[in-house]
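Quick illustration, no need to memorize.
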Amino acid sequence: MTNAISRITWPRSSFVGFDRIWNELDTALTTSVDNTNVFPRHNIVKTDEDTYDIELALAGYDRDDITVEVADGLLVIEGDREDGEVEYLHKGISTKKFRRTFRLNENVEVTGGEFTNGLLVVSLAHIVPEEKKAQTIKIK
């Protein structure tokens, strides 16, 4: 990327304990775009203030061809489908093996998934635990 930002330039002096996040952002901004990681096509939809849907276009796949796992802040979606003994004269609908990974914020949880008409929708919610919500401190 010719116009890539080599490092995040806004002041880090106001942020404490965000080293891992800064490093991930630096890596994301300095790594060239991987054109091989465009399959399957996907959307990330903000459905309201605290919920999201990740939509993946998976025409040609069956529910049993897809796995969705969440571990250590990563949502991993994999697909693998065998075409068998089919002879294609033209194959414009890909059913190749894939793996898509999405990093989740520490308070984002997967709340469900649905596969209908070739579209996989994974629902997410930003759920802030009570102990992390704003509190009023009583001054003595």
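The radius of gyration is 20 Å.
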